[in-house]
Structure formats: C-alpha cells, structure tokens
Write a structure and sequence with these properties.
Serine Threonine Protein Phosphatase 5, Tetratricopeptide repeat; 411 residues; Nucleotidyltransferase, domain 5; alpha+beta; 16 helices; 9 strands
Length: 411
C-alpha cells in the first residue's frame, strides 16, 4: 500500500517541519473558492481559507440547543475532574474537530481542515479552516491559534486520543508552541461510553447524533473513511468539487458535538428533568453519581431506574450495585430487600451476600445455612466455566462447614 510520504512526494510535496512545499496539481479548473463560499484569513505567515456560518440563539441541532447559557456544568466538570470549568463563561468554550490525511495519526499524518464552534451573545459561530495544500501549514496553524487566543476550554469527541495530540505534533514540527498546553480539555467520548455503553452498541458521534439528539444527515454527507483519499485526489487534480461533502461532514460534526455536549450537561445537571429518559440511561447516571459520592442523587436514580424497568441482566446488575451502595451506608434493610429481589432472579451473589449478612450481622446461622445451601444448589445448575464452578463450590462448601460448626457449637 502506498504510504502517506509516497503520496506527498508524488505530488511534489516534501515532508518535514521546514520542507513542506506546495503541491503541483495537474489542473486547477475548480479551485476551492469556486466550490465553497469562503474568504482568505490573513496571518503573518500567509493565508488560510476560511468558511464561516452563524446560527441564531433559537437554533437546535436535532433536539439539542448549542448554547450553554443557564446550563449547570457542575456535575460534568466534576466527572472530567476539572471542577473549575463549571465557573467558566460560555464564550470561553470552543468545540473542535479535525479532518486529516489519515486516520491512524503519527508524525506523517497532517490536518487539512479544522472545524471550530463557539458561542457569543449573538449566537453560535462555526468556523472551518482549510489548508489548500501542505505548503500552507504554518499559516493554517497560525489561523487556528488566532481563534484560540481567548479560549479556556476546548471540547472534542475522541480528541484526547487523536485530534489534540496530532495538532500538538504539527505545532512542534512547525516550530510553534502548542496552545493546547494552556487550555483545559474535555473529551466527551468517555462520558458517552459511560452513559450509553449498555443501551447502544455503537457510540460513534455519527450514531449518537441519530439516537440521542435526533439528527439525520443528508446525502451530501461523506463517510469519514473516504475523506483522506478525497483530499489527496484534490491535491492531485486541483478539482475541489468533491470537498463540498467534507465541509458538510465537518460542519455537522461540530454542530452535533456542541449539541451532544449541551444534552449531556443538561442531563447531568438535572437528571430528573426528562421524564422520558430510558431506564438504562438512568441506571448509568446513578452509577456515575455514586462514583462522584453524591449518594442521595444516586439512590433516587437507582430507585427510578428499577421502577421504570430494565432488561433482566441489567436489572440484576443494578440491584447488585444499589444493594452495595446501601451496604456501604449501613442501610441493611435496604440492602437485604434488594438482595432478595436479586435472589428471586436466581442470582448467586445475592444468595452469598444474604448468607454473609445473617452469619456476621444477625448470628442467625440457620438462615445463613439456608442461603448458602441455595447458592450451592444454584451453582450446580448454572452454566459457568468448570474451573470457576469448582472454585465457587469449594468456597461455598467451606462456608457451609463453618456455619454448621457454629450452629452445633454449645452456647
């Protein structure tokens, strides 16, 4: 397979921080200016092509707003382990997404388009910076840095693993200091995985925008895997017409990123505000609040998720986690109730927890023996790995022997 370096060399481009030169297209019948309405953004290092769009305050991407006014960011900021972000003004946030020459990253990969979205008092601004050819990279990065001058928080989707490291590398290779070292970063992909990993098999942005905020893209959409090849074809021919689909793709990524961020922030800030929230999402929120040590909200959400109904396996998992939370709080009545609900679903761990409780807390050895024997009987019928079954049976038999000795020990 032809490498990125080989492709660039065939176009007359020399790779390296100080050796990037302009590609020499075979013809220039359809320059980018004739395909996309934009302007040259002037920097001290040259020009970058820029496209701007403006969206009014009442605009929604699907069902989600793009505007962070009056949204409580406290919980989202605590999840990101950056609690100070909740105090930032909305115009200090920027949403960023890149289009690149390859999807694997590395020093041979470069960025040729950067989408930026930011809020002002008038509305939401979408800016797309485009690098006509690799020889303009320094001007391209200088234009990006201009828009980051007053920004304090950058929001991405998978930017921690891809976009930001790649932009850091391109800055270093061009002799620049990366601005991202001074900007807080929130990557919402891990949060999306936390909330929707059990309900949605696909947590890509393109699927979340459909499933969560109800966005459907038009036929102008270009699949992400096609984008690098389309850009190289443009460099080879000078025909920018196929790039219109890339601009459309990138613009929608920014709008959906902002909309999804708004949705997540609103859901975390007021989890009881949406009565139509699916039970599995509520249970996932309960677990997140539990890990943030907000016990009261976690309990309310666990109760709500169980009342709303959950698939069997997830119902059992939620009963177990909820019972463990009650146990840590010393609420034994609540924990016992939930363990018995799980036991009704033939859940071995619930039997064991009940046996432990009656042995150590109540000294009721008859009841502890009953739950241990139930666990043994179920272990024989449950389809599990033979090695795991053997270990489990050994532990349960050891527990049963100890309980029988305690039961028969003279008072």
């Amino acid at each position: 397979m032809e490498s990125l370096s080989d492709k660039l060399k065939s176009l007359g481009v020399h790779v390296g921080a100080n050796k990037l030169t302009s590609a020499k297209p075979a013809r220039n019948e359809y320059p980018i200016e004739e395909v996309i309405q934009g302007v040259d953004f002037q920097t001290a290092l040259g020009n970058a092509f820029m496209v701007e769009q403006f969206f009014p305050l009442d605009y929604h991407q699907g069902t989600a707003s793009l505007f962070l006014n009056n949204i409580n960011l406290d919980v989202l900021a605590r999840w990101a382990q950056k609690p100070h972000i909740s105090l930032k003004q909305s115009d200090k946030f920027i949403f960023l997404d890149t289009e690149t020459s390859g999807l694997s990253g590395g020093t041979g990969t470069f960025v040729f388009m950067i989408g930026l979205g930011f809020q002002s008092v008038e509305g939401f601004h979408l800016v797309q910076l485009f690098m006509r050819d690799p020889g303009q990279e320094m001007a391209f990065l200088a234009a990006l840095n201009h828009f980051l001058n007053s920004i304090e928080v950058v929001v991405t989707f998978n930017g921690k693993a891809f976009d930001i490291p790649l932009l850091n590398t391109r800055h270093v290779l061009n002799g620049f200091s990366s601005p991202f070292k001074e900007i807080d970063h929130i990557d919402i992909l891990p949060l999306a995985r936390r909330i929707w990993r059990n309900r949605l098999s696909n947590r890509a942005l393109s699927n979340l925008e459909i499933e969560i905020i109800g966005v459907e893209r038009t036929q102008a959409e270009v699949p992400g895997w096609m984008i690098p090849e389309l850009y190289f074809e443009y460099l080879r021919t000078g025909d920018a017409r196929p790039l219109a689909g890339i601009f459309y793709h990138n613009a929608n990524d920014i709008l959906s990123l902002a909309g999804l961020f708004y949705y997540l922030a609103k859901m975390l800030g007021d989890p009881s505000g949406d009565p139509a929230l699916p039970g599995m999402d509520i249970a996932a929120l309960a677990r997140l609040y539990e890990e943030l040590e907000d016990w009261i909200t976690a309990i309310q959400l666990y109760e709500r998720s169980l009342e709303q109904g959950l698939p069997r396996d997830f119902y059992i998992q939620t009963l177990s986690r909820f019972a463990s939370l009650y146990r840590r709080q010393g609420n034994w009545d609540g924990a016992i109730y939930l363990w018995k609900k799980a036991a009704e679903q033939q859940q071995i761990e619930a039997y064991i927890e009940l046996a432990k409780y009656y042995e150590h807390n109540q000294r009721d050895y008859n009841e502890a023996i009953k739950w241990t024997q139930n666990a043994l009987d179920l272990a024989l019928k449950t389809e599990i790995n033979p090695f795991e079954r053997r270990i489990l049976m050994m532990e349960l038999n050891k527990r049963l022997e100890r309980l029988l000795n305690k039961q028969n020990k003279p008072v």
